[in-house]
C-alpha cells in the first residue's frame, strides 16, 4: 500500500512540475518573456508557474485570471486578509480589492513589486500634496512616504504609523530644544500636526498655510489670558454666535472649555477657517463611527471627505445641519439625474415613514455602502422590496 502511495505522490509532483514547465513554455511562445525580466520577480513568475494565477483555456475574468482582484492575491498573501479586517482605515485600493493599483503582479524594479517608485506612485493619486515649495520635509523630499504612513491600512487617520506627536518625536528626538521653541511646554501635551505641515510649507518651520492673527503677530497674550471658555473666542468673534442660533446646531454644554476648539485650531491650519487637520478630520473626532463604516465600504461618495460641501458647520434649520433641503443639496451636483429617477417629493411618499421620498431614502451620501450608486439596504433588489414587497 505504501509503495502505491509513493508512486501516486511522485506522479503528482512530476505531473505538476511538467504542467508548470509546459505552461511557461507555451505561454512565452506568444507572450514576450523579456517583459517579465525585472530585478524583482513575483514568485509564480520566477518559478515559471503562470497557471498559479491564470487559466490557460478560459475564465470569467479578464486576463484569464482564476479570480478577480484581491481574492486572487489573498489566496497566497493571507496575512493581508487578517490585517485588512483589523484596521479602521484601510487604504482605498485595499478596501476595493485592487492590489494592482500599486503592485505589478509579474515583476518590478522594487522589492515589494511596486508599479513605480514610491514617490511617483503615491503622488499619482495624492496629487494634492505635490506642491513642493519653500521648506520641504525631508522624508517627503526623498519620496519616503512610508516613513510616516502605512500603505495598506491603519487605525489612525491618514494611515499614520503612530499618533501625530509620537510619530514626529521618532525623528525629532531633542526634546529640550523643542521645548525652547514651544514656550517650554511638554511635548506630550502638544499635537505637532496641529500647527505643522508634514510635507512642505512656505514657512521655514513648516507652519501650516492659514494662521490665527494673534499667533502670526506673536501676541500670545491675546488668548493666553484670564478669560476662559467660549467667552475667550467671542471676545474677538462676536458675530459667530449668530450662526449657532439655529434649531439644529453644534453648541455643547461645556462652558468651561471653549467648544470652538473641538473643530478649530487657535494657531495654524491647512484649511480655511482654521479647521483642525485634513478635510473631514475635525468631523471624524466626534463622528468616528460614520467614518469607520465609510472607510470599509466599497462605494463612497466622491466628496464624502468634505462634509462642509453639504453641511453647515455651526447650525442650520435643516435636518442633519444641511445647507439646503436634502433633495436640493443633491441636485446641486446631480442636476440631470432627476430626469430618469424614482419619483420624489410630494409625488411619492415613503411607506416606511410616511414622509415624502427624497434622494437619501434610497442613497447614503455619507457612510458609503457595498453597492453602486451608494444604494442603501442589502442590494438593489433588497432595497426595492422594502417598499415594493408585493412585487
Plain-language structure description:
With about 400 residues, the protein is mainly α. It has four domains: about 1-115, no CATH class; about 115-205, no CATH class; about 230-275, no CATH class; about 285-385, no CATH class. The protein contains 16 helices and twelve strands. The protein has helices at about 1-30, 45, 70-75, 80-85, 90-95, 120-125, 140, 165-170, 175-180, 190-195, 215, 230-235, 280-285, 290-295, 325-330, 380-385, and strands at about 40, 90, 105-110, 135, 155, 200, 210, 250, 270, 315, 345-350, 355. It is flat and about 80 Å long.
Tags for this model:
391 residues, 7% strand, mainly alpha
Concise structural overview:
The protein has 391 residues and is mainly α. The chain has helices at residues 2-30, 43-46, 70-73, 78-86, 92-95, 118-125, 138-141, 164-169, 175-181, 192-195, 213-216, 229-234, 281-284, 288-295, 326-331, 380-384; strands spanning 40-41, 89-90, 107-108, 135-136, 153-154, 200-201, 210-211, 248-249, 268-269, 315-316, 345-349, 356-357. The protein has a two-stranded antiparallel sheet with strand order 1-3.
Q: Please give the domain count.
A: 4
How many strand units?
A: 12
What does the radius of gyration come to?
Answer: 28 Å
Please list the strands of the largest sheet in the order they lie side by side. 1-3
Q: Which regions contain 5 or more consecutive residues with pLDDT less than 50? A: 6-20
Order of helices and strands: HEHHHEHEHEHEHHHEEHHEEHHEHEEH
What would the average pLDDT be, to the nearest integer? 82
Strand content: 5-15%
Overall 3D shape: flat
Helix content estimate: 25-40%
Main sheet specs: 2 strands, antiparallel
Distance between the termini: 61 Å
Class inferred from helices and paired strands: mainly alpha
Our count of helices gives 16
